[in-house]
Amino acid sequence: MIRHIVMWKFKQSDGATREQNALLLKQKLEACRGAVPGIEHLEVGIATPGLDSTYDVVLLCDFTDKAALDAYQVHPAHLLVKSFLAPIREARQAVDYEI
Fold it and tell me: What SMART domains does UniProt report for this protein, alphabetically (predicted)?
């Protein structure tokens, strides 16, 4: 099994607040749960206002194997997430490891 963890920090945006963008991202990521084969677990966390956080959203996702993670990267549902993030993302950090 492969664990995939990604964190995003958003830019200030004229169109939507960070909180609105975080909620939209959460919805888009959670839509991958039923659409992408090989996802065993998918969890999205949004930074809680008032707590000391350096990033806005975190994804914790477990895949059956590396092939499933690779397939996720090019799946149409994931490509929609990436296109949503492109204009609002300031920074991204990720780590993948076997569990």
Answer: Dabb
Q: Judge whether residue 24 has pLDDT over 80.
A: yes
Coil vs helix vs strand at 92: strand
Q: Which CATH number fits domain 2-98: 3.10.170.10, 1.20.1250.20, 3.30.70.100, 3.30.450.20?
A: 3.30.70.100
Q: Region 58-75: what's the mean pLDDT?
A: 97
- E strands in the chain: 2-10, 39-46, 57-63, 89-98
Report residue 35: phi and psi, to 5°: -95, -30
- To which H or E segment does residue 2 belong? strand 2-10
Domain ranges across the chain = 2-98
The phi and psi torsions of 25 (rounded to 5 degrees) equal -60, -45
Q: pTM of this prediction?
A: 0.92
**Span 31-40, pLDDT tens digits:** 999 899 999 9
